[in-house]
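Just curious: can you write a single protein's sequence together with how it folds?
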Amino acid sequence: MEVRIGTSGWRYRHWRGVFYPEGLPTREWLNYYAGYFDTVEVNATFYGTVKEETLRQWAEETPEGFLFAVKAHRYITHIKRLRGVDEALSRFYASLEPLYPKLGVILFQFPPSLRYDPDLLEEFLRILPRDFPVAIEIRHRSFHREAFLDQLRRYGVALCVSDTAGRYPSLLWAVTANFSYIRLHGSRVLYRSSYTDEELDFWARRIEELSVKRVYVYFDNDALGWAPENALRLRKRLGLPARSLPPEALKILQGRPLD
């Protein structure tokens, strides 16, 4: 089983000092990030179309074998709410073409107000392009049923395992594809909490128990800068190569609250 661990996004100015060296220009951040991790989740594509030259630059700046996970545009999931999205899907996938050589997974995050509608979901899954693996993140309890999981299995779509500090009823464990996708937003306070050693041990055990070909894990607890540090600690627990953060960065992090 191949396990890839990274963070959700990398362009955070408040990561200066706790991950990026103080004097490192922002244009060099992705290359620096790729020296620690072999994957990253892109959130910018959820809010707008990223320029073709920018995507091409990302692909060129990262080493061979590096993979991007890309979050689908909110027009598809939050505005159209999966209805009549044939053209929108085509445009979105076409906009990612410069990233294709290093595109790992496309994530569709459903809005918290979107309830399970088997017919709507079936139509959406039917028209999804099959060019790249797809994961779906749910945020409504109505999806907690076997019929939903069966639909995902029939189309080979992964259920995103999402830890949201209890805000959304989305922590549902099920293997529905030949890969798994995990998003760790914070265990106690959304986007802020640092994962404790005990919590990381829990996630390491769950990952090791999965019977899939590949696992993607992204830490989204970026607000206080814990995401890179937590990701590196989880890599170590799983026996993956993991560089250590500079002592000065660890010192700053140790002075920050855990929540």
